[in-house]
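CORE FACILITY INTAKE
Project code: CF-77B
Contact: R.S. (postdoc)
Sample description: multi-component assembly, two entities in total
Requested service: structural model of the whole complex
Turnaround: standard
Below are the sequence entries exactly as provided by the requester. Do not edit them.
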Amino acid sequence: MLTIVVDAMGGDNAPACVVEGAVEALRESANRFELLLIGQEDKVTPLLQQHDLGSLNLRFVHAPEVITMEDVPAIAVKSKQESSLVKGLKLCKAKEADAFVSAGNTGAMMAASLFVLGRLPGVLRPTIYAYFPRLGEGLTNIVDVGANVDCKPENLVQFAEMLTIYQRYAASIDNPTVGLLNIGEEEGKGPEYLKQTWNLLKEAAGENKINFIGNVEGHDILAGKATIVVCDGLVGNTILKFGESIPHFLGALYKPALEKLVVSGQLDQAAAALAGKAFKEIFEPFDVEKFGGVPFLGVDGISIVGHGRSSSRAIKNMIYMAEHMIEQRVNERIAAMLS
Amino acid sequence: MLTIVVDAMGGDNAPACVVEGAVEALRESANRFELLLIGQEDKVTPLLQQHDLGSLNLRFVHAPEVITMEDVPAIAVKSKQESSLVKGLKLCKAKEADAFVSAGNTGAMMAASLFVLGRLPGVLRPTIYAYFPRLGEGLTNIVDVGANVDCKPENLVQFAEMLTIYQRYAASIDNPTVGLLNIGEEEGKGPEYLKQTWNLLKEAAGENKINFIGNVEGHDILAGKATIVVCDGLVGNTILKFGESIPHFLGALYKPALEKLVVSGQLDQAAAALAGKAFKEIFEPFDVEKFGGVPFLGVDGISIVGHGRSSSRAIKNMIYMAEHMIEQRVNERIAAMLS
């Protein structure tokens, strides 16, 4: 039976949301795996006592320290060795568990995962991706979104290869297309390192490692031209944060526009409320907290990070993601392709 | 009196829209400047004949060739020396005119401007910016948006300096703030070239050349944290194209959402239509074609490019922009700061 460590202290709504998500996952899956809930005893055990623990495949592990959202990742990982985050990953390293999930400090998760778990054989730099909604079915997956800057062509190619394996086996996308984010569609466009990357991606496609469709541009992300969009972490991180800011920005424009229609008597209050609600709902595909998290690709173990605002549903989904990644032997496949 | 060359053949709605915009500018300004309308005689003169030319300070200049939106910039500029675009810029170079405006092929405009006009003293690489709507007053101006990739720190600093002068004198922004687009706010974040850029921007701020406020992130663009956001052309171009794709993407989600409310009887058709119209209107700040164009900063002359979809209003505004740039001696000020 698989054992998954869940960081009870990770996320804005921790530990309550995490406890709830873990309990839900076990109930829904009929105890298909074992969960180790790790965190501060005085905070977590009162919450656990509200549940019928005898019926759940769940153990509590005490970790006295907590890495917060405000902690500087590199410093926190070194100085807080007794945190749920570092201690939880160490359980994986010691083979006492198979995976770790947390909605905590992303930077610290990344630093600790790399530090504690190390890299898979052949991997130059582990990476993290993010998904975007798109027209039609499916999602656009952008890699890297901030774990790596100053990327070299060989790094970008590995990102494409690792995410291809993840999409193929963990997300069941048959033959995910890979696009290289650039300033123009044509071959030979853009900065030097992207020209070299283009050549290496073409080679990898020749070896049937990836399904490379060439350069894509900024407008192709929401249009859904490629399943995987490869770029340096600076570009990916900027797009990610820009995208996350859109609902608030447009809401701040649309709300007064509807109110104006109500004040002028053109729209009644109920209709405006309905239109406003429907407007909010179109942004739900942007709402990462609903879906779960993303794995660090390339580390020698399974480490899944969720958004700080993760709901209990997101925590539950992250647990299922971990289970699925193990079952699909994603890491073995990555090591096999890259080494 | 100033003489401004207007490319009659530039833009999707050329030459009709361009003729209209030029005539409007002269009527509205009471012939404050002279316009040279340049283009193919058989296409343009029939349109001109519809106006009372005797009352307008307008001359027509024949240019037999046209650079289209499909032309490859570097090739077209060399092979189509008799195009309105190249010939118009040459009139500026020969001091027969003071500025050139076009809604044509941006890449070709950029290549031809650099080729024909050359660079201002001290300018390493001319640049082009784009404006974004933001919460509150004003706009966020991103530089560079595709003219330059593989940017070096000294290029980025010059972009900030040139756009600061433009914003200060041509856009009347008192002391425009400059942010460096990065993956985090803190000093020392991001790729090597941005760390070096940070230091150089700090120096430039110490000399009172710019008003540097530090790093900004993707979500700060629409939030309006800085008036000027500096980045490599790959990042800026990606954000620009991503931003332009948002209205279509969200419209494709919101339209069916409203229709569903109509079908289910929750919203009447008229209310849905009003809500849909208000929704479309919130994207108008994104709609560059309404406002005009942007100048190439750093070339030894005045060259203003508009969106391919430019309306006659946009053409008119570009003519005013050119006039204002000359009057405010923007290029002299750039040369003085950079040399």
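Facility notes:
- Residues 69 and 179 of chain A are 33 Å apart (CA to CA).
- Chain A has a mean pLDDT of 95.
Invoice: internal transfer
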